[in-house]
Amino acid sequence: MKSTNLTKISDEELVIKIVEKNDTHLFAVLYDRYAGLVYNKCYGFSNSKEEAQDLTHDLFIRLFVKLRTFKGKSKFSTWLYSFTYNFCVNYVQRNSAKRKERVTIVTDQIKEEDNGLDEIDDAALFELKSDKLAKALELISPAEKMILLMKYQDDMSIKEIAGVLELGESAVKMRLKRAKAKVVETYNEL
Fold it and tell me: Where among 95, 116, 133 does a domain terminate?
């Protein structure tokens, strides 16, 4: 297949050919299409450019091995997006066990009482100072950070987030509400 034809082939067709032939040259085409996007997502979860580059490299190695698990039920880009977020969240959780980052698991199990969480709106989130907000985002759990980045950095809709995370829309709304409350609370403690 000529390289000019490779630019016209869809991601899904490319994945099928890569899996059929276990072809690293074809995988390089997929890499070229998505390396920048994946790097940017990894950078959001890392502490440096070098760490983001390492994460991106590791993720693509893992992706080559796991590519055959892509079943085509969604667009490849959506599947890769989910794969990237899950990879990064797992990385952060593995490498930061010393930190108190598993708050979401606990808060998901605690029945919420009316403690002012409804008053945390998007405007309050946007008024926070960016450097202090970045610090607060580092201190909340990876899952909370992930859902906030999906909503506000990547501008995904509730429906799109629900599809990527394989959750119901009401669960996404509740997790967003809790994550916003947690980041504002953490921000105010700084």
Answer: 95
Beta strands in 16-142 (DSSP E): none
SS3 95: helix
88 and 111 housed in the same domain: no
Q: Are residues 75 and 59 in the same domain?
A: yes
**Whole-angstrom distance, CA of residue 75 vs CA of residue 134:** 31
First to last CA, the chain: 56
Using a 10 angstrom Cβ sphere, with 0-12 exposed, 13-18 middle and 19 or more buried, the burial of residue 183 is buried
Q: Which amino acid is at 57?
A: H
Provide the 3-class DSSP secondary structure of residue 167.
Answer: coil
Q: Which residue has the tokens 């506000």?
A: 152
Structure tokens of 56? 């991106």
Which residue range(s) make up the domain with 116? 103-189
pLDDT in tens, 2-16: 444 777 899 999 999
Count of structural domains, the chain: 2
Q: Provide the whole-model pTM.
A: 0.60
Angle of helix 169-189 relative to helix 158-165, nearest 10 degrees? Answer: 100
Assign 190 to helix, strand or coil. coil
153: CATH = 1.10.10.10
Please check whether residues 117 and 147 belong to one and the same domain. yes
